[in-house]
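Hey, resending since the last one bounced:
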Amino acid sequence: QAQLVESGGGLVEPGGSLRLVCTASGFTFSSYAMSWYRQEPGNPGKGRELVATINLSGDRVNYADFVQDRFIMSRDNARNMVYLQMNNLKPEDTAVYYCDAWKYTGYDRTDYWGQGTQVTVSS
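The structure tokens again:
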């Protein structure tokens, strides 16, 4: 069955960097666009916030405005992995980060989600 596993989260000081990794299995990874989302802990009313999306081939990435050139998303279709390099982290980046594999078949959207990885930015 389809599975996504995120890793690389942790505690970092403001201005620091982390690289998140999402490893996919059980589906044709190269046929799915990939997105990173985040959700603030203890604030379920806000919902998940889209961080970045990468296309199938990995040559096009769209970022949320709040990223402000600090994050870089990439993918390796040979390894079934997607990455989020996060630089110049701020306390407001503290959240659980999730990867999402998605595609449309006609009007029907299929999503696979990982379990999330915690990122805490604090001094």
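DSSP finds no helices and eleven strands in the chain.

Sorry for the duplicate.
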